[in-house]
Amino acid sequence: VRTGLAAELRGLEGAQYGRYKGLVGRWEMPGGELLELVRGQSDPYAPPARVALHVPGRLAALPPELWRTATRRRALSSYLARQAAHAVRGEKALRVDAGGQEVLERSSCTVSGEDGSVTLRLGAALPGHGRRIDGREAERLLCQVLPRVVERALRYAALDADEVQHFVETVEDSVALRDALDGLGLVGFVADGAVLPRRSGVDDRPATGSGVVPFASPDALRVTVELPHAGPVTGMGVPEGVNLVVGGGFHGKSTLLRALETGIWDHVPGDGRELVVSRSETVKLRAEDGRRVERVDVHAFVDHLPDGSDTSDFSTQNASGSTSQAASLCEAVEAGARVLLIDEDTAATNLMIRDARMQSLVAKDREPLTPLVDTVRSLHRDHGVSTVLVMGGSGDYLEVADRVVMMDAYRPSDVTARAHEIAAVPTGRHAEAESFPGVVARVPDPSSLDAEVRGRPRIRARGEDVLSFGDHEVDLRAVEQIADPRQVTGIGLTLELMVRRGMLDGQRTLAEALDLLDELLADGATGPLLSIRDEDFAVPRRFETAAAINRVRGLRMLR
Ligand code: ADP
Ligand code: MG
Questions:
Q1: Residues lining ligand 2 (ion), CB within 5 A?
Q2: pLDDT-wise least confident of 115-119, 360-364, 405-409
């Protein structure tokens, strides 16, 4: 550990820009924090340097009850990152990745469970006059602005004590609620009073105004759950089994499903979805024509293709809407999904339904597709995989649904009894399958997941949609539960971690490798992922990582 960073920077005034590299390492700052230049910057146009500010526990002085558990530490870190981002606003050279409405584990800020010390990681564009070092400005940024960030954002004395406590307790309640689902036989919960609609498709904050209808649960599905801080909360419990959401267009069906979709993540106070949760093994599915599929057994949904290809070991470079959705469903179950969400708006109709009239017109042996309506019950009964389906356009699901919820002007009601009455009148439709046969576990070839380009790893996110991984551009547009662009970076680093640590070893199945991954990351994912590269990232779930692996164009499965 060196001292005298300020003097050092002053001394570098006007020197060649490359000499910044000599500062890489740890510096003790006068205030007692440690400034670590983790990675330098080779020239003024290169990606910013990486700086870590380590604030010792006695300096941060955060009460231990705020960082006692992993959940509390994640919440507290998220809160501190937001404070730090606020404290550097206006400084263009500094960027703290604070995140949006979700409270994710991210690299920008971590709190140690051992001593309550805080580490803030950020990008710092090191200042220059052209290719010469601007030492005075660098001194201002690193030795004045950053210590001020510590002073204002990372010390308990500077925080609003009630606000930080509320933030932590809000997240803890969400986690408690999610953890309670299993024991209650539920896959999701939507609290009374929750605000589900968002401001716009590109603005994830809650909708505002007099037109917003807060959620109100139907009597038949109302459940009360006791939470550690909020006490008893009531709301709609979404039970295990086959759940159908019906109702007219624009009545709020997709909005409800989207709330369940993001219910795998915790939300900040004031978001409106703090107490909207779903099981962490919930996966949203959609059609995604054009995607690649590598050796997936989709024969439960697609069989007897006109070209005679074997759909129990099915590959394509260019899947259709229906085969892509069938493959994504099988892959999700393979990766461990226990709840599947499907919205008619983004589903392939021909994979969802085939009504009586079409069954009469087109004989089964001329139709490769078996609609989900015929296997969805077995998915739950035989495989323990529940579903929530938004389906306003076809009554065929009334027969197979355990529960039917109708949305009417954003208000849900339970119409199960009526739906079953209607379904009792035969339509002449006959089932096309007895059961869902299960999924075949595949073994990825790690050599087909190579991040290196000319000897150096390339892992880069382009927004929420594309991951550059080695030579591959992985299209993640259809992976809708990615909550944050930095999570795409997190997916890339996770993938590389799985390869480097030999989890994907050419022997293990993908599911086994994902189990090892979860085990390794259980005590905190940031450390292991930082060992791949110091970068702004948010930690993904295994399902998003699996979805990315499945979308790598060059992926090979050994079996
Ligand atoms: P559907 O899927 O039934 O066609 P959507 O969920 O897409 O309907 O909702 C239609 C519109 O209504 C959207 O613009 C959405 O933001 C808005 N909306 C949804 N729920 C509410 C609500 N509770 N209060 C106010 N507006 C809502
Ligand atoms: Mg819709």
A1: 254, 345
A2: 360-364
